[in-house]
Amino acid sequence: MPDLSITVDGLRLPNPFIIGSGPPGTNANVIAKAFDEGWGAVIAKTISLDASKVINVAPRYARLRAESGDEVLGWENIELISDRPFDTWLTEFRQLKSRYPGRILIASVMEEYRREAWTEIIDRCQQAGVDAFELNFSCPHGLPERKMGSAMGQDPAILEEVCGWVNAASSIPVWAKLTPNITHIEDAARAALRAGCEGVSAINTILSVMSVNLDTLRPEPTVEGYTVPGGYSCKAIRPIALRMVMETATMMYGRAGPAARSGEFAGRSISAIGGIESGDDAAQFLLLGASTAQVCTGVMIHGYKLIHQLNASLLKFMEKHRFERIDDFRGKSLQYFTTHADLVRRQADAKAAEKAAASGMVTRDAAWTSDKFVEQSRGLIANE
Ligand SMILES: Cc1cc2nc3c(=O)[nH]c(=O)nc-3n(C[C@H](O)[C@H](O)[C@H](O)COP(=O)(O)O)c2cc1C
Predict the structure, then answer these.
(1) Residue nearest atom 5 in ligand 1 by C-alpha distance
(2) Degrees (nearest 5) of the Cα angle 310, 312, 313?
(3) Are the beta carbons of 19 and 335 closer than 8 angstroms?
(4) Among 125, 139, 234, 296, the one annotated catalytic
């Protein structure tokens, strides 16, 4: 049977599936459930030093359903980061690490543009025993009003500076979670990696307006008649996430992929996220260079037991192709991206070869046959 385990930035995961930061990792109780069901790692809901500034509204979600049936295609949220006190989180991190010493617990952190604040949050989470950090530079709503989240992630210079502060304080792996609400995600990835981050996570939610109610004329989700644009997640964003992971991986590893170990950031990692609900979805991200696959909305729709299906379907994919471990195929599909001009050239070459074959014109020595030898010779004469 293929081996689903993976070691990424020194962290050993039993499988590549990680609970993405959000409601499925919002307190010790639900994180314990994720470990019990067998998730490879958990990234807790994003925390900050002063939770009293975080005030959520309700309703804060809106869904896009398929026209036929109940299938959820898209999910918008205007939820903020955790509103639970920092000290409560530190206690829960300690409890979780003592109950699950061998499991990977990642703290997601976000702070204002102040070095002391970042240093303090990193120091204290590290002392509580977490295994790694994910820096949330990507929440697209609410926090940007305080110059946090995607407001930082959209400015590679600030991102690089803040990642530098964090890496100076951290002795465990650091991933920077990138925003898709930017033209060139690879610029932000490069800034984070230059500042010493071990990896990047991509993508967070895409800024969106889910719908306008045609009876009330109010956009949704409506809070006292008003709304703000929110973060879009779930299946609908997967193609965009795949593109952004591909662009990030190409910048980091080159088109030859991570196995060639020759790109600018060859040994660093990518944690993919965006619309993953099956092992086949995850396999596509791994083929584009990611080491791990995070799931957030999928857990909100299908529950923690989804991990069993994810593992089973990824194993099936690996068995079909006789891949023994994830590194056997990680980044393998990057080589099939090229320029549009190259597509046009390849298509013209293929058509010319087809035409030559149809006309009986011999273009390769192996094509000569004894029964058509004379006609084939004549087909090659230029002046007839
Ligand atoms: C309700 C909700 C809350 C979220 N909260 C956070 C958060 O606190 N921190 C964070 O980094 N990402 C947060 N996210 C973003 C997810 O981690 C993820 O990047 C995004 O939803 C795309 O993945 P998905 O399609 O698997 O949900 C949240 C997403 C949702 C749907």
Answers:
(1) 22
(2) 70
(3) no
(4) 139
CA gap 314, 282 in Å, rounded: 7
Q: Is cis: bond before 140, omega within 30 of 0?
A: no
- Helical ranges in 154-269 per DSSP H: 156-169, 185-194, 238-253
Active-site annotation holds for 139: yes
Q: Which residue has the tokens 């003592």?
A: 98
User: Is 252's pLDDT higher than 90?
Assistant: yes
Q: Is the CB of 186 under 6 A from ligand 1?
A: no
Mean pLDDT of 219-226: 96
CA torsion 183-189-192-193 (nearest 10°) is -150
CA of 46 to the centre of ligand 1 (A): 9
Ligand 1 pocket test, pick from 174, 204, 234, 295 with the greatest ligand atom count within 8 Å of Cβ, gives 204
Nearest to 265 by CA among 11, 7, 16, 9: 9
Backbone angles phi, psi at 73, to 5 degrees: -100, -40
> Cα–Cα distance between 15 and 3 in angstroms, integer?
8
Percent of the chain with pLDDT over 70: 100
pLDDT tens string 319-336: 999 999 999 999 999 999
